[in-house]
């Protein structure tokens, strides 16, 4: 399962974002380091379900009238403060938790109501743009420190006649989630001495920055748009970075209201409708939230997760079935499963995602839409429905 980590300074709204996206109860409070131990839960990304092409909607519990929700892991860790890579705050604990994440959502306080340490200040007093670069810098310097501490092992390996720097760095950085292919791409774009002994701090920092950017891409969630000065949000959107306006509190309120039958709303909808008996105070709050959603095309929480997976990681959703004509499994369940795979994946990759035995016994695959066999080198597209034929 893909893993998305929520990063950011304390009190920016990470735990509220996490609660809204997972509906799991965690500590949320208006002081730094509310989160000490990492919270792990299941959230979802949203896409269009192929069942929209059929006369009837599928019966998957993760499909809501054609809105398909595909599970991902969401990780909420302790807040980050400047100097975290040197151990300030809960920095090392925070950074170590990011090792296995595939992509990062940097939750910032767009209202400017928390300073660089996460302490409450007046709205607009702090510049939220400062909260973007420092998170990237802390992550880059943290990884640079790991490279520095382990560089001696690379130097020792370089004395071997069959030394290959790509393999040596891949071994060193495998724990960070860097694949040999990613290391090769990074080295292709770097200028560096052939002899690792001649590398200096600048070479190692450049390596760390490029590896982090390739293995831990970041999307910014400009949170608290419901109370943020509009010019703050506009300035953030003008940056040459992916920025999604969000209100985690608004999303949490909507999900709870929907659970209680007070509103008609599914995560990722751009609007909601009040349908239950609500008090005057509730109506006023919901109508205010509706205005925020109209201004920013929703609460942004689902959009941030979707962007992280479908845009930054460039994944597609594929649906394995046993019956190509009914798009169902052996029990008649229509489109029961959905898998997220990197763009460029093949039916063989999908087979292994279903189960290693299915992959080992792979024979061929059928495109359920066309009822035609596809080659094992066929590149899966978003929404493909595939019947896998296997000996296992």
UniProtKB/TrEMBL annotation:
Residue runs in coiled coils: none
PROSITE patterns in alphabetical order: G_OBG
InterPro entries from the UniProt entry: Beta-grasp_dom_sf, G_OBG, GTP-bd, P-loop_NTPase, TGS, TGS-like, YGR210-like_G4
Keyword annotations from UniProtKB, A to Z: GTP-binding, Nucleotide-binding
Extent of the signal sequence: none
GO molecular-function term, one example from the UniProt record: GTP binding
CDD domains given in the database record: TGS_MJ1332_like, Ygr210
Domain OBG-type G: residue ranges: 2-274
Superkingdom classification of source: Archaea
Family to which this protein belongs: Belongs to the RelA/SpoT family.
UniProt protein name: Redox-regulated ATPase YchF
Species in which this protein is naturally found: Natribaculum luteum
């Amino acid at each position: 399962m893909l893993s998305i980590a929520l990063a950011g300074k304390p009190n920016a709204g990470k735990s509220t974002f996490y609660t809204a996206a997972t509906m799991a109860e965690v500590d949320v409070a208006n002081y730094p380091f509310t989160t000490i131990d990492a919270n792990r839960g299941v959230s979802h990304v949203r896409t269009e379900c192929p069942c929209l092409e059929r006369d009837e909607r599928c019966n998957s519990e993760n499909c809501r009238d054609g809105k398909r929700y595909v599970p991902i892991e969401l990780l909420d860790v302790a807040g980050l403060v400047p100097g975290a890579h040197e151990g300030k705050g809960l920095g090392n604990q925070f950074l170590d938790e990011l090792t296995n994440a595939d992509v990062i959502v940097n939750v910032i306080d767009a209202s400017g109501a928390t300073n660089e340490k996460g302490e409450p200040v007046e709205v607009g007093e702090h510049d939220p743009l400062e909260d973007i670069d420092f998170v990237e810098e802390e992550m880059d310097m943290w990884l640079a420190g790991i490279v520095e501490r382990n560089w001696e092992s690379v130097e020792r390996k370089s004395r071997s006649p069959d030394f290959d720097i790509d393999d040596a760095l891949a071994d060193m950085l495998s724990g960070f989630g860097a694949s040999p292919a990613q290391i090769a791409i990074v080295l292709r774009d770097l200028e560096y001495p052939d002899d690792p002994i001649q590398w200096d701090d600048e070479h190692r920092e450049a390596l760390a920055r490029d590896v982090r950017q390739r293995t831990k891409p970041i999307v910014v969630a400009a949170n608290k748009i419901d109370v943020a000065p509009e010019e703050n949000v506009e300035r953030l959107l003008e940056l040459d970075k992916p920025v999604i306006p969000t209100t985690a509190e608004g999303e949490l309120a909507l999900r709870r209201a929907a659970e209680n039958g007070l509103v008609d709303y599914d995560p990722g909808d751009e609007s909601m409708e009040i349908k239950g008996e609500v008090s005057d105070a509730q109506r006023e709050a919901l109508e205010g939230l509706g205005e925020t959603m109209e201004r920013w095309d929703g609460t942004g929480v689902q959009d941030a997760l979707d962007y992280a997976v479908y845009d930054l990681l460039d994944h597609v959703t594929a649906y394995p079935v046993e019956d190509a004509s009914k798009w169902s499994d052996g029990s008649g369940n229509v489109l029961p499963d959905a898998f997220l795979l990197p763009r460029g994946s093949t039916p063989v990759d999908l087979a292994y995602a279903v189960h290693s035995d299915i992959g080992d016994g792979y024979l061929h695959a059928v495109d359920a839409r066309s009822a035609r066999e596809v080659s094992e080198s066929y590149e899966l597209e978003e929404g493909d429905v595939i019947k896998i034929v296997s000996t296992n």
